[in-house]
Design brief:
The complex is a heterodimer of chains A (421) and B (310). By secondary structure, chain A is an alpha/beta fold. Chain A has 20 helices and 13 strands. Chain A starts with 5 loop residues before the first helix and ends with a helix. Chain B folds into two domains: 48 residues, no CATH class; 230 residues, Orthogonal Bundle (MetI-like fold). Chain B is flat. Chain B starts with a helix and ends with a helix. Classes of the chains: A alpha/beta (421), B mainly alpha (310).
Chain lengths: 421, 310
């Protein structure tokens, strides 16, 4: 689970030393740099290790020590290592997901990095997601779009086209149901997938600002506007649009339904594309479109979760850590680590180029030109952890038992009053 | 010479040496007692202390008195998560005990001498040897609503499909059944060893008095299996209260929290991905401890009685 890269990096360092480049801010960094990562899946791990190798090349005198922790375990270990045994750099997630650590004083204020004109200009789009109390607490390194992934070949077979509004979305769905398929695959066993549906339905029904007020606990869950969101959701549920027994599946276990053509759409993040391709679907069979308009009076807004790097407040080598954060967000590194053969996601630096992959291109265009309402992180990153947990459980229950909506909403309202006061 | 030396040595020897016999057991016990105090007794009081605070595990604590217990009370009244967990804990305790009669039945069935009986016994004992996580996974696949064996079987009889792990009313029974599989094997092995010790003369005597079948079992065999039954009871109760693994593997407490038990709920609110309520988690732990104390006290009391020979 854990590995040290020292040997490999030392070898790289020697190479770098002989090539003797002039990099960095003029003076070389020394000492140790301890980095903790949660990128335990093979592709992200290789990407990170290569990136750190390039940083080592620039700073041959720096002793870099990398620890990779299993992605799920990292989520519970972070609170221990931040206070007991802090590294110099650790990765995490933006928005409310970092709030507990910011409020406990465990993350370093890196507003000074954001003063840097290059960062200020090129990273402006994600600044909000890293800001709490007017200060910035880390830097982003990647983000990805959410949207409706669908089976293009089945659309062609049924003579359908990408829906631009809710009526067409529902009509498409009816045509799909009539052909003996399900409209949407989803696996809600781990709850967050239902959070994605709620994000889109609520942002399209009531707009981004309302959605954020709800996440911030300023609106009652029993408000009529919230009920309208659930009424729209219910329209799809009553049609039988979602696969049966979704409460038993993880998001990966829900993939075979779309792969086998038993369901046609998947509302997901861009990370779903890789497993769909691996399962044998070609780019002629899968495509992507933006979640359609429901209420034309509100501006379109999107989910685009951002993954981040932070410096723990008790880090020992903050100078090297700052240099590393700067390096990660630089134009070239962003182009490199987010390309199709590495993370396959979107670069956070506006000057970087997006890889020539149709999903990345479409997603990037959508987020930069067609999301005027705002960009949300994701329900479980925008709402406080407890509220996210309780509400996503409510969403799952609603999808199974839509008649119990009143009881569910009153439970969420009680939770809101306890959590935010 | 020697007669005068002997008492001299005795008088000169140290206090330690004189009390050797009395001290030795305490010396041997010391490490265990220290570990027990530090890792078991001390955390019990610490948990109770934490349960009086509101604390996210990172920042400063805030003393809130019994408010966490008050929340638990309201969750109980509103039939919310705490009520569901408590109800499921009771279900687990009652249904898990089925492992004892089931284990006894299988043990009686296997307690014969035919060719290859050792193999059969091993096969029946097998589920106890594999990890609980694996048992949980196997049952998850078995129950799978689309591809699972259970629904294929039901389909043969024109029944189903049933989504056992997705149905709030069935899910706990489904998980308990998965748990019973290895637990029955455990009880079986306890009874198999117990049956070896049954006195053949008493059976003979019973037979002379005309006892057979169920009467023989109930009045002659089962009373002799008392020690095995006691152990089976203890391990089964403890197993039921430790049902965390199965739930974590099979449902994560879902659907919408309907398969939670107290241990899992405590983990969820305090330590899981979204859990930051240490105080509340501790309050649940204290409640769970209070339930366990009833059983622990009973076990200690009956062991004490046994020791004194009734």
């Amino acid at each position: 689970m854990r590995s040290t890269l020292k040997a490999a990096l030392a070898a790289l360092a020697t190479v770098a030393f002989t090539s003797g480049g002039t990099f960095g801010d003029g003076h070389s960094l020394t000492g140790n740099l301890k980095i903790f990562l949660d990128t335990s899946n093979p592709a992200p791990r290789a990407t990170m290790e290569a990136m750190i190798g390039r940083f080592q090349e620039m700073h041959p005198d720096l002793e870099i020590d990398v620890t990779v922790i299993d992605r799920e375990e990292y989520k519970t270990q972070i609170r221990n290592f931040l206070s007991a045994n802090p590294p110099d750099v650790a990765n995490w997630y933006a928005a409310n997901r970092m709030r507990p650590y910011v409020e406990a004083g465990l993350f370093e204020d890196v507003s000074d990095l954001w003063q840097d004109p290059e960062i200020a200009a090129n990273l402006a789009s994600t600044k909000g997601a890293l800001t709490i109390d007017g200060k910035q607490w880390g830097v982003p390194y990647t983000y990805y779009q959410w949207g409706v992934y669908y089976r293009k070949d089945i659309y062609e077979e049924l003579g359908l086209s990408e829906a631009a509004d809710w009526e067409q979305f529902v009509a498409n769905c009816q045509a799909i149901l009539d052909s003996g398929r399900k409209c949407f695959t989803i696996g809600t066993k781990f709850l967050w997938t239902a959070g994605g549906w709620f994000d889109y339905l609520n942002m399209r029904t009531n707009g981004f600002d309302f959605h954020m007020s709800l996440a911030a606990g300023d609106v009652s869950w029993e408000d009529d506007r919230v009920r309208q969101t659930f009424a729209n959701w219910r329209q799809l549920i009553d049609m039988g649009a979602f696969i049966d027994n979704h409460q038993t599946y993880s998001w990966q276990e829900a993939l075979p339904f779309i792969v086998n053509g038993e369901a046609v759409h998947y509302l997901m993040g861009n990370f779903a594309v890789a497993p769909l391709r691996d399962a044998g679907l070609t780019d002629d069979q899968i495509d992507f479109y933006q979640f359609p308009v429901i209420n034309s009076a509100v501006l379109l807004a999107e989910d685009a979760p951002t993954d981040t790097f932070h410096i723990p407040a008790n880090a020992e080598n903050k100078e090297a850590a700052r240099a590393f954060l700067k390096f990660v967000v630089s134009e070239d590194e962003q182009t490199e680590i987010n390309n199709g053969s590495n993370l396959g996601q979107l670069p956070v630096n506006a000057k970087s180029s997006v890889d020539d992959d149709k999903f990345l291109r479409e997603g990037f265009a959508m987020l930069s030109t067609n999301s005027p309402g705002g960009v949300a992180q994701f329900w479980d990153r925008d709402a406080p952890a407890e509220m996210a947990k309780v509400s996503m459980e409510g969403f799952q229950e609603f999808m199974v038992k839509p008649d119990d909506l009143d009881r569910i909403l009153s439970r969420l309202e009680r939770a809101r009053q306890r959590i935010y006061n | 010479m020697s007669r005068t030396d002997m008492p001299l040595i005795g008088r000169q020897s140290s206090w330690l040496r004189r009390n050797q016999i009395a001290l030795a057991p305490w010396l041997f016990l010391t490490p265990v007692v220290l570990f027990f105090l530090f890792y078991v007794i001390f955390p019990i009081f610490q948990s109770f202390n934490v349960s009086l605070y509101e604390w996210d595990g990172l920042g400063p604590r805030k003393y809130v008195g019994f408010r966490n217990y008050e929340y638990l009370y309201w969750e109980f009244v509103d039939r919310d998560a705490f009520f569901v967990s408590l109800k499921n804990n009771v279900l687990w305790l009652v249904l898990y005990l089925l492992a004892i009669p089931a284990g006894l039945l299988i043990a009686l069935f296997l307690n014969q001498t035919v060719a290859g009986i050792r193999l059969y016994k091993s096969l029946f004992f097998f589920p106890f040897v594999i990890s609980q996580v694996v048992v949980g996974l196997v049952f998850t696949w078995f129950y799978d609503p689309t591809f699972g064996l259970l629904n294929s079987l039901l389909g043969v009889f024109g029944l189903g499909p049933v989504n056992v792990l997705g149905d709030e009313n069935l899910v706990t029974y489904g998980i308990v059944l998965a748990g019973l599989w290895p637990q029955t094997a455990y009880c079986m092995i306890l009874y198999l060893t117990g049956l070896n010790a049954v006195d053949p003369e008493q059976i003979e005597a019973g037979r002379l008095d005309g006892a057979k079948g169920v009467r023989m079992l109930w009045y002659v065999i089962v009373p002799q299996l008392r020690p095995a039954t006691f152990i089976a009871f203890v391990v089964t109760i403890i197993g039921a209260l430790r049902s965390f693994d199965f739930i974590a593997v099979m449902t994560q407490g879902g659907p919408f929290g309907s398969s939670r038990v107290l241990a899992f709920y405590m983990f969820e609110v305090a330590l899981s991905e979204y859990g930051f309520r240490m105080g509340y988690g501790a309050a649940i732990a204290v409640t769970l401890f209070a339930i366990m104390v009833v059983f622990i006290a009973y076990f200690l009391w009956s062991m004490y009685r046994e020791e004194r020979g009734y």
